[in-house]
Write a structure and sequence with these properties.
Helices cover about 55% and strands about 10% of the residues. The protein is built from 24 helices and ten strands. The model has no long low-confidence stretch (mean pLDDT about 95).
Length: about 450
Amino acid sequence: MKISSENKKFLKAAEKVGFDLDHRKKIKFNISQYDVAVKKGKGIYKNLNLAQGRAGHIKYKTINELDKRLVEFENNFIRNGGKIIWARDAKEALTEILTIVKSHDLKAMVKSKSMITEEIELNDFLEKNGVESVETDLGEFIVQQAGQKPYHIVTPAMHMSKEDVAALYHEKFDVAENLSPKELTNYTRELLREKFVAADLGISGANFLIADTGSIALTENEGNAMLSMSFPKVHIAISGIEKLIPYLTDLDLYWPLLATHGTGQQMTVYNSIISGPRRRNEKDGPEEMYLVLLDNGRTKLLEKERQRQALSCIKCGACLNACPVYKNIGGHTYNTTYSGPIGAVITPHLKGFEKHKHLSFASSLCGKCDEVCPVKIPLHELLLVNRNEAVKKGYFTFWEQQGIKWSTTALSSRKKLDMVSGGTKNLLGKMFASKMWGPRRDLPKMAKKSFSQQWKKRK
């Protein structure tokens, strides 16, 4: 098997970004701000470990009862006046959304922050079909103007400084140079208000799907999701099938966990529960509401006895901020919707092991991601399970196979290692390991005599 094109792109990008000092400075600063806020936010808990354990147990139990809970949710959502669309993959989801767009003759879309719409590449699709598509979350709006994908699950523009954003706005909107963050935000607010009023289609994701009420729970900090749902005549929500929680009362557990681990807040500013379209006695809200429930590889992950636990993820982004690999190579290097440790676990199952197995190897296995996860997903263990599966499926190159074979033979025998002199070991290491070691690091030299040889001589 050859190295996949995705793997080659990853290695090339990692080599470039990992040694970009300007990039590293921005990420270090932004994540340090996050770390301070999260430490303070978690102070609301008397027993954080207990809260995480309960949240993880409920989510994992729900994942294992997904067939029953989805039916319960569907029945209650339809009873509330909403319409459900089941989509097996991205193509099916986009086709159904386009059918809605055409049937209502929709021309302008405003969208709140949603990673699943990035997963199906909704914006580009709608633009190609004549629908103006505008991101209304500030971070998402910024990266949209820059022509980029979100850098982070929670903080899309984490890789940009305030100077970068000011320069972008000067270029795109011909505003004054070096505007302050407050001025940039105010400018964006005024621009987006016009878009909210003019839009006939609003699109959102879903932080949680509540089975017993048939409702969608959304959490945000800017109010843009509420406006995206309230003004347009049609609201389409898109969610992965794994976002279910059993009861409305479970939100008092999940909303604070998501806030404290995601941004360091005790609670996010706006928290909404949407239970269908506008009713007769209500003054605002959409005339029609649709929910697209997307599989797109999730049932493949559900088949895995161990890795299915990753579907418990509530997309807080904490594991990204903790990961030493993510903090060095950045979000865009992964070239996937979901980056960092959680992305490295789920992407091979969602998008194919053969092309994306390398992501599960892009980890130091330090276990920091496990420590910070609000639902106690054992991410570093699941990365190892993925690696084992990749090897069993034969997704490795001839030279990887030979390297493992010969290194295992040599390292399993002290006697065999001692038969080779230090000079020969260094020569062999240079021949076979220097490329993997990289051009920016010096390959360590082995001593002329091993420790055991030196010990015997000393004794």
